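Contributing new records

If you add data, match the layout below exactly. Sequence lines come first and carry their own label; structure lines follow with theirs. Keep one chain per record. Anything else will be rejected by the validation script.
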Amino acid sequence: MGKTEKVVVVMPAYNAARTLRMTYAELPHEVVDLVILVDDGSSDETVKIARELGLEIFVHNRNYGYGANQKTCYREALKAGASIIVMVHPDYQYDPTLLPSIIEPIQKGKADVVLGSRLLGSSPMKQGMPWWKYVSNRFLTWLENMAFGLRLSEYHTGYRAFSREALESVNLETNSDKFIFDQEIMAQLINTGMRVTEVAVPTRYFALASSASFIQSSIYGCSILALLGRYLLHRTGVLRQRQFESLKRRYKTVPDDGAA
């Protein structure tokens, strides 16, 4: 892509007023062309602060859900002419300064999708991840690797980069408006043949960072099991589903040899 690429950061925001300034301040602005914030019906001053920071802002009239937020993020980033789209949560949990490492595999033409993995490198539990989240993450990732034929260390990160072609290859509107969207888009991208890799990212766990409860995480886990079942039915031709049909097919996905 060279220097002609346009890197757009998208921030799916919900009540992120207390951490938005910190997150934005640590973005490597020399490589970011545009920052888009989508507010999903926040009740705090998220939108006010985003305006003060000069971000491109889109506001939902109510809380539609994390998946719905991402749909707007990616739709608007593509409209803005993005070559590379990076999702950065404004809750300051993921380190914004690592963005150059996240986009590098795409810039070098080695990948179409890059996941910032918390499970590569140092132990995430030492960084504050609850043990039950670590265990469930490992188990669900093992199941997803079996279904998708990859060897990634985790699929449940909120730090992700996509090439324009990757996002244009899938039908985002067929996905859920809830948290399961994260795994639905991965299933779509893998089925389309997009190349997926990952880089290690340390993660902060603190009071202001967003974190799903045990009940929410349990519902999310059950939703992933249902998704994998539907994906395998589609892949084996037993029950074809429009959600997984690719809008364009070009690459063959290969396992990432550097993954854990």
